[in-house]
Amino acid sequence: MNKTQIEMMEHAIKNQGRYYTDADCKHWNDLVEKGFASKRPGWDKESAYFLPTAAGREAMKLTDYQLGKLKHAFGLDYSRKPYRNYYHCNQINDEWEDMCAKGFANKEIRGEREIVYFGTLKGLREVFRKNVSAKYFAII
Fold this sequence. Notes:
The protein is α+β, with helices and mostly antiparallel strands and about 140 residues long. It has seven helices and six strands, in the order H-E-H-E-E-H-H-E-H-E-E-H-H. Helix 4 (about 65-75) crosses helix 6. The longest helix is centred in the N-terminal third of the chain and has 12 residues, at about 5-15. The mean pLDDT is about 90.
């Protein structure tokens, strides 16, 4: 899924599990082809309701491996409280790229062979399992 599709899926999940738009929306039709959404007729021939499927909802979640990488970035594999926010790589990492697309992380390219990934507030809330404020997140 690309970033636009992820945003549309999140919107649908938050809004009673459906997204109303043009029937020929290429992003949603691609998700329907992949089995991540289903399509229902709308009020007229040009519109449709798109509904995330169970497979689509599952694709929006992080894998256990990704959760481990995110915990490591926050230092939660060595501490009870997050005390850092970075993960260094010397090349593009597919797991981190997926987390960036889903909004759990961001990346910064610092030269030819250095990429640093950072967890977002959404990512910290996912792995820390506590209601963390933006103010607390800013001091990490």
